[in-house]
Amino acid sequence: MVEAAKTALDEPENQPRTASPSRARKKGFKWRPWLRAAHRDVGYLLVGLTVVYALSGLAVNHIDDWNANFIEYSRTHQLSGTLPTEDAALTAEVRKQLGVEAEPVEVYWVDDDEVEILFDERTLTIDTASGVVRDEGRDARFFFRLANWLHLNRGKKAWTYIADGYAGLLLMLALSGMFMIKGPKGLKGRGFLLVAAGIAVPVLYVTLSGGP
After folding, report:
1. Could you tell me the pLDDT band of residue 44, with boundaries at 50, 70 and 90?
2. Which of 104, 111, 141, 168 is spaced 20 to 30 Å from 189 by Cα?
3. In the chain, what are the domain boundaries?
4. Buried b (16+ CB within 10 A) or exposed e, 24-41
């Protein structure tokens, strides 16, 4: 014990210690933490767009079951007083009593006692003898109307670049996710089976359905 202590004292104080090979390897560049950080931040960035595209996709997928953009309605109203017979005066009176602010597109007399006042998304059919109004039209669905407009790229122009960027970042998320974890839970183990299963879904569907 005394000899060991003496040997330690005889060694120069500033002599550098040689790192073990395993420790030297650990000091190299670690890319997985950077990949996980990028994957996380891009995921946060795309939350809003993903909600828009996901909910819009569900709505459009069931377009045969419902109108994904509008709620159609039909209701009746009773007008009061004697109605004018001149187009402009009649239209003004109907709009006043029903609180319609939109400008009409056309006023069309079906017969002597029935007139239709046409708006962009609404038609008022008035029985001038009884004062009964049949109000038919459609209201835009909250959120879905705009979400579908964006999803189907109805706006074109700048949104095309935003949609392309979103698609590219989704591709980055898919590819980076495969390499975030190593070992049996990564691409060399369970991850490979899950990736294979995900690829098999569209391949099998196209094969079994006969494709386009």
Report:
1. very high
2. 168
3. 31-65+143-204, 70-140
4. eeeeeeeeeeeeeeebee
